[in-house]
Amino acid sequence: MFLAGASMIDGPAAIAPVFEWENPPHEIDVSRRGTRPVQMDDVQILKDARKRYEQMYRRVGGVPVRPRIVAFLNTSVTPLLKGGHDDRVGRELFRAAGGLVALAGFCAYDSDRQALSQRYLFHALRMAKASGNLAFGGYVVALLANQAMSRARYRYVIQYCETALRGARGHLSPALVTDLHTLQAKAYARVGDRASCHAHLRRSEVTASRIRHDEEPPETGYVQPGLLECQHAEALRRLGDLMAAQEYAEEALRSSDGCHLRGQTHRLATLALVLAERGELDQAAATAEIMLERAEGMESGRIAERIGTVAAALRAFDARPVREFLARAGQQARMPL
Known about the structure:
By secondary structure, the chain is an all-alpha fold. Helices cover 72% and strands 0% of the residues.
């Protein structure tokens, strides 16, 4: 059940699953006859497992965590999906199972297995539709937008985000709405649409003021204090507004005390890139050194990519702090884990 194709899906076929999620027909009854009755206790086990695997992902990266989730999906989730349940339990089951499938997809994305990730996310979106939970569906579409961003498919990012905001309007949490607007802002910055970028930055700030973390669903835990500022810094850097980008990047870092190491690494990378582009080489190299400390021990394609981007930005400068950082970054990249 949890196998995937070998190549990425592009063109209209990449939009079709999101269109199907947003539009009728909707599931009227997901009850199922089966030899093994599924109870709400079974659903809670899946929710607890997703939380545990997400914590592991944040600590060590998607490479070592993905096989663990896949094994759990095959041994524990598939039998439940084949079991018997009424409509109420069935919808909760699809919601919980979809959360695990989506996390497996993001771990595949973090492991540079993009086609596999896309298949998992499409599968999670079908489960979201079966669950009837529009907020969860919007979250899965946001993951697809994140993947499209990493692949430089900026029009997909914009379309995915617009679909999530439209298709789940009134059901999305403030944190997810904030993230969807910042994703759009970054995509518009990449295509050079300054006005649209700033419009979505403003919308994200308005929505962020309404975030109450104790009222958010579990999946939006990644929207931690300072993430908004980090995303703004990324967008403004792409527009060439380096002074404003640095202010946002520094604010993101000041807010990172309670942030997990993965988030700290991304924020440090953002600030290092801004400083490098401003020619502040000593500060950029020092910030990049701290980034390497935070990333040590993580097996993550995305983190490795961020480090590589910082290294590429600094490599153009022949200065002792830069050479020392590049030497350490190269050594850390070659270190077996």
